Amino acid sequence: MNRRILTLIVALLPIVVFGVLLAVVTVPFVSLGPGPTFDTLGEVDGKQVVAIQGAPTHPTTGHLNMTTVSQRDELSLGEALTLWLSGQEQLIPRDLVYPPGKSREDVDKANNADFKQSEDSAEYAALGYLKYPPAVTVATVTDPGPSAGKLKSGDAIDMVNGTPVANVEQFTGFLKNTKPGQVVTIDFRRKNEPAGVVQVALGSNKDRDYGFLGVAVLDAPWAPFVVDFNLANVGGPSAGLMFSLAVVDKLTAGDLAGSAFIAGTGTINVEGKVGQIGGITHKMAAAHAAGATVFLVPAKNCYEASSANEPGLRLVKVETLQGAVDALQALRAGGQPPSC
User: Fold this and answer.
1) Where is the active site (predicted)?
2) Active site residue 176
3) Residue 283 catalytic?
4) Which residue in 150, 250, 283, 317 is the catalytic one?
5) pLDDT tens column, 165-222
6) Residue 228 in contact with residue 103, Cβ under 8 Å?
7) Angstrom distance (rounded) from CA 35 to CA 279
8) φ/ψ (deg, to 5) at 69
9) How far apart are CA 50 and CA 246, in angstroms?
10) Up-side HSE of residue 278: CA atoms within 13 Å toward CB?
11) pTM of the prediction?
12) What burial letters (b/e) apply to 63-96, b meaning 16+ CB within 10 Å?
């Protein structure tokens, strides 16, 4: 073989091997970066992101965008290097996202459960802000179980065997005096339907010696209309604040956003307290790219958010749903809301 050709082959071999490694070898890292944003006042796939049925709603303007973080797994060495060099993606050890002993399906299921919980909490926080009174509210119904087909998630339980129950403590106290097999009469209210009465034969549960109704309940504000959140393929709890703001905006006169493009993030609980989230800088980048000029930041994320460089994106600090509404109203009036 010609010496020159042999030298060329020897020189190219490491490059070829490295190229194969870049394409074939996967790395134990997950990439996090800016994800899509969704206007909670708008539509996705022909459906309102926040739809209210059974109550008059008010027209809205502007944007109240929730933000997300994109996630890429099973990266090749080449993909990981490309994403890292882009400066917009963050590589973190895979075990931090998918802990050992948990499958991808387990993690996805947990994220979906968190998202469903964020929807429920967002509704309750908004209803509380709007001064709807609390009730013993059915969160879930065990199926199969004694109440399956009789009670539904969202029902408000008013009486058990003719005795009013104003809160979960009273409701649980009543059940503790029952026995498996006993039939109880439940008076309830159902959204967008007439109030009803059902009789339920209590079941048994290995964790208790009293009757098992087969429902999980909580003290939460209750309204006679339905709030639906129509956003699929999004996980985690961080959409809560923006969902709550959309509910408030649609059920009250006047626009929270005005003509502005507002984006934000934050968990929310039933009492309307806004909580810390992850990936704040990625969400800010996504909001800025989408055209937002104001970003609502949970108070505990302010330090990290302030370190990001997103020119033209005003950071507004929020701690509660009430504070977020007040901040948006101040912005519309030309005032100075709390900032990071």
Assistant:
1) 238, 283
2) no
3) yes
4) 283
5) 999 999 999 999 999 999 999 999 999 999 999 999 999 988 888 999 999 999 999 9
6) no
7) 10
8) -115, 130
9) 7
10) 12
11) 0.86
12) bbbbbbbebeeebebbbbeebeeeeebbbeebee
